[in-house]
Amino acid sequence: MNLLLALVKHYGTLENQDKSKVPPFGWTNAKAHFAVELNDDGSIDDILALGGHDKKNRGVVFEVPVRRARTSTPVPYLFCDTAQYILGNVSSTSKPGTYLSMKNAMLAFRGDLGESPALNAAYKFFETWDPEKALQNKFVASAMAFKDAETSTFILFYEGSPIFDDETFRTAYEEIVEKYGEFPIQADRNGNVSITAAPAHMRSMITGEDGLKAKLFRPVSVRGKMTYILSNNKANTNYFGRMQGDAIPVTMQDGHKIVEAAKALIGSKNCYFLPVTSQSLYTKCVIVWSDEVTKPEEDEMLRIWFGNESEAEKTDNIMRLAKARRGRVDILQECDKSKVVNVWQLSVPEKGCSASSFTQTTVGEVLANCIKHYEDMEIDRSEACKNADGTRRDFARPDSIILALSAMNKDNSIVPINNQMWMQLNNCVYNGGKYPSQLLSMIYERICKDALKAPAGTMYIIPPTLAGAIKAILIRNYKEDITVSLNPNNTSPAYVTGRIFALLVSGQHAIVPDNQSQYDKRFLSRVVTNPVKVMPTIQMNFMQLKNRAQKSNRMGTYNAINNQIMDLIDMLDGNYPGRLTQVQRGEFFIGYNQQMHYNRDAAIAKKREKEENTIAMSAVNTVATVDETTVA
To answer: DSSP labels for 112-130?
Structure first.
């Protein structure tokens, strides 16, 4: 109910801002692809492709009479419909009843619509046109040569304008809408039409206002997939507007506002689609809007929520500028924090019913929860996780986490992930609730699988998105005290064990870089389950690398790493932990991840120091040479 009321309110907001943004009651926006220009005698003067010849860009949006949802019988859309309704037999799939339903409906409403040059041209067209010989007309044949012309929309024009722009038609149609809410046409498969009874008046449960009782609501297109925001149709369709199996009492007026507001939102920047491949079973999106904030405030809120700005403005700016209260976040900091923000998550499957969830929050909560999520997710990251300008990439957004969890097919396409997981993750990020309970196990499974696939001769480092997600879950769900970087004071047995394993992996790689039997690939999934059974074996194997270190002149590296390992084992009192719980596995991975990054940073610092010393020694030698030359 809250969603429906919020959509009604948003329709009013759009209408107040600009009446052209949403169509009035009785009208809707639809795309037409071909204009059928009529002469006064009803003959076709030409058929023009609208919006160019490119399929992707073809078509122009018009404000047309409202289009009732079609079921098993044809429902003609006057003056604007597909080729078989307007022109007749244009392909092998054309059905005679469709054209006849359009013709009979047009002539049946002739007395109600009245007379004008434009309307008379349309009447004469349907009186004289032979649908069986449609393709013999050169203009029709030319139009049908376009790809997908059979399913494209054709619109009747007169003197360069749509016929329903005719003043006589619009005046007559207003009276029809006032009584019926739409064209009251009912047709059978043979094309016979009848006029339906005028709907009863009722009070809407949504707004409490009087209106016409709705029978069947229109669907909304979400990237080509049709979904119903509410429906009074079949009992087995569990649409969002249904309440305990019974239709919600909604008037046609409110239903119009709900559908048109939803269409406006889905087609705007307020709607963010989760990046998925064509193999996905769902079209998933989150829609965020507020009717109480100003446009600049909403724009900044959407940038924080969706990160839909340039790469250089993502995570760093959200964190840094939000804390400093300057820059673009300043607008929200100065905004009334109590203003309401609507969050609608929608998933549309290929077949069946859409899944929908709706919550309302405030600007203050959005900002605070968003910043808290990014703070909890922040963790040591490599230089590879930066943009060319040095700023951090946005690794913490919910869709980034979902994509990091997704498996890849052999053709590098993404295997679809659980739809509800994405919804739950979005909810908890922006409402401050606990992260989904099953998220930890999914992350662990992905890490272990990715480690097995790591290229030979490279050390596996947990992706920052997954490591950050573990850290955030441990902090929010389990009240753990997890730092961004390595914490030498953390004495958790699982955390310390993770550090030891990272040192063993780094040590093996440093001493035997081309080793094909890597510790991380062979043992990670076993170590994180039951360290006490595996770690002694790995440690013994590492000790056997001492001879290799002596032969390759790497004893300094071996001794340094071995001493660190011994110090950490002392923290465990010489005993590795047994079977780890879910939380302890998270601690293990955090310890492993932070120690790996610490090792990397130490190696980089050592290399940089060596280069600086080399440069300094070179400068000293150069000066000494110059002095000797001067003396000579």
So the answer is: HH---HHHHHHHHHHHH--
